Amino acid sequence: MIQFDYRNMLYSPQLKRALSPQQIEDMQGAIQEAHQEIEAQRKADILGFYALPEQDTGHIDSFIRQIDPRFDTMLILGIGGSALGNKALYSALRTERKLPRRVLVYDNVDPVFLHEILAEINLETTLFNVITKSGTTAETMAGYMILTDIIKQRFPDDYTRRIIITTDREKGFLRQVIQKEGYHSFIVPDNVGGRFSVLTDVGLLSSAFAGMDIAQLLKGAAAMRERAENSDIWANPAYLNGVMHFLYMRQGKNISVMMPYSNSLYDIADWYRQLWAESLGKRKDTRNRDIYVGQTPVKALGSTDQHSQVQLYAEGPFDKVFTFLKVQSFNHDYTIPNLHPDREEVSYLGGKKLSELLNAEALATAVALTNAGRPNASITFPTLDEYHVGEFVMMYEIQTVFTGMLLHIDPLDQPGVEAGKIATYALMGKKGYEEELERIKSLL
After folding, report:
1. Residue 143 in contact with residue 109, Cβ under 8 Å?
2. From the candidates 96, 139, 278, 386, which is the catalytic residue?
3. What average pLDDT does the structure give for the chain?
4. Measuring CA to CA, which of 58, 232, 387, 440 is 20 to 30 A from 66?
5. Of residues 152, 421, 430, 436, which has the active-site annotation?
6. Cβ(96)–Cβ(387) under 8 Å?
7. Is 349 exposed, middle or buried (0-12, 13-18, 19+ CB in 10 A)?
8. What whole-number distance in Å separates Cα of residue 187 and Cα of residue 26?
9. How confident is the model at residue 398 (pLDDT cuts 50, 70, 90)?
């Protein structure tokens, strides 16, 4: 199982501003209250992601078995929760597991980006998966219309087998398109929000297509869910990390830096950024009072950003909490040859594994930040595989909801995002948004 090392989050002679164990113990009442709220929402079927480990994935397995072997690429058309989870899972496992098929994601309406993707893929061997629950997401629908037009012109006789749509079970524009065209379709569940949807059809279909063992992803998620039900806060990594971040927010540490020491985990930090920012960044509490809370998530890459960001982290403002992601055992490694045994400048590296150097740098950065009084934690993956990635996903989804309960906000809504969507509709001339357009013009 993944290991959560929180020692550098607690008080020590170096970490004078850090939390004491007693401060965490003193939170037991609030922790229990947040837990009870989570349990109530689970029973009300609001927190659907909790039940995902038990879902039936037979429809996905059946679809993958009947795919024409010529299809070796899946292009995801989605944004936010419809895209970041797919990227995170694929990036984490594509090299470690030697995945036989590839997954690409078009999640920004930059026309040059689309041009580059079209230049890279072979239309003949690519499936296109359109993911949007509402069927009205402007960015996704623009990509859908452009690419569907291209596919229909190129493959007029069999375009329907090249397009997949993942959307609402019953309603919405795309459900009507599916019924008319006969496209393969998958479901975005009603009780699982986009940023929590990576372990639904949204993320599992592309993962299974690429060659991942999605049963192991769900098994790992189930194991973490069980750990997160432990009433002992010190044995519950999701709640413990959540309460620590909550207490540090109250100290003014409003930046959370996630720093993977593995290129494969870099996109997981992107997935975390949306989950943490969109869930916790709220103006109103559950009583509709203005509170303006949230913690800004930042990603960094070890060892690259030791040479670009760590100077700020070690000597800049005391406004950050750090989480290092590490891999204990890599499936691929290299031994550094001792090419200059007579030179002390480099001979100490000779005979060492590249992974040894990487993990030594992770530890060294943690030591440096601790000595500088900066709280930090580490999450270690024994290996990068589906089971441990599933554990991590469930840990952070539970941690995010739990922290939202401590903050007394709704971690499932995103009113600030909706405001931007409405402005986009108005600017693009969507019918019914004329009044909003006039309001925008008055501000220009």
Report:
1. yes
2. 278
3. 94
4. 387
5. 421
6. no
7. middle
8. 43
9. very high
Q: What are 381's strand-pairing partners?
A: 327
pLDDT at 318 over 90: yes
Contacts of 80 (CB under 8 A, 6+ apart): 107, 194, 195, 274, 278, 417
For residue 386, which amino acid is it? E
Q: Domain locations in the chain?
A: 3-40+217-416, 48-212
**pTM listed for this prediction:** 0.94
Domains 3-40+217-416 and 48-212 share a fold: yes
What tens digit of pLDDT does each residue of 125-139 get?
A: 999 999 999 888 889
Q: What is the CATH number of domain 48-212?
A: 3.40.50.10490
Can you tell me the mean pLDDT for 163-188?
93
Q: Is 388 a catalytic residue?
A: no
Indicate the class that CATH gives domain 3-40+217-416.
Answer: alpha beta
Residue 50 has pLDDT above 90, yes or no: yes
Backbone angles phi, psi at 250, to 5 degrees: -65, -20
Told to judge if 307 belongs to the known catalytic residues of this protein, a careful annotator would answer yes
What's the rounded mean pLDDT across residues 37-48? 96
Of 16, 43, 180, 307, the active-site residue reads 307
- Please indicate whether residue 340 is annotated as part of the active site: no
Mean pLDDT value across residues 113-136: 94
Q: For residue 442, what pLDDT is reported?
A: 82
Query: E-strand spans in 261-373?
Result: 282-284, 290-293, 296-299, 320-327
